[in-house]
Write a structure and sequence with these properties.
five-stranded antiparallel beta sheet, 8 strands, three-stranded antiparallel beta sheet, binds zinc ion
Length: 167
Amino acid sequence: MAVLRIRTLPDPVLRQKAKKVANIDGSIQKLIDDMIDTMRAVHGVGLAAPQIGMSLRIAVIEIPEGQVITLINPKIIKRQGERVVEEGCLSVPGYYGEIKRSKVVKVKAQDRRGKEIRLEGEELLAQVLEHETDHLNGSVFVDHIESQDKLWKVTPQGNQTLEHQII
Ligand code: ZN
């Protein structure tokens, strides 16, 4: 188990379309454990493999009061509604922005044992599901910013981790 370095923009790995995981072997299990350790160390609510430099379709999620969710090869199969959220990203440190996300998101994926699962999330979980699948497609939240005044810099003394979730 290890805490890995978070890649930040403009690291090109964040802009690649991540590769499908074909074989969930021991190295993938270790990677998932390291991703969970890393997500917790930086107080994130989600982490996608490209954020630690691995261009693979894997994401881990842990929202407050929730259990750890591991998604391998996730695919969004339903989006419903729209809401405006304030969002930040571990790979875009110091910035927050206002963007639109779906209210309800349903994904199909494999869990870490390779079993096919379906997961539906609302509110924060829906937001994280979209945020992580974006990462796997080489997209980050700033791509959804509609105008520059919707993106702002957070001062280091700002209490951002209490007010916002970072993903
Ligand atoms: Zn992110």
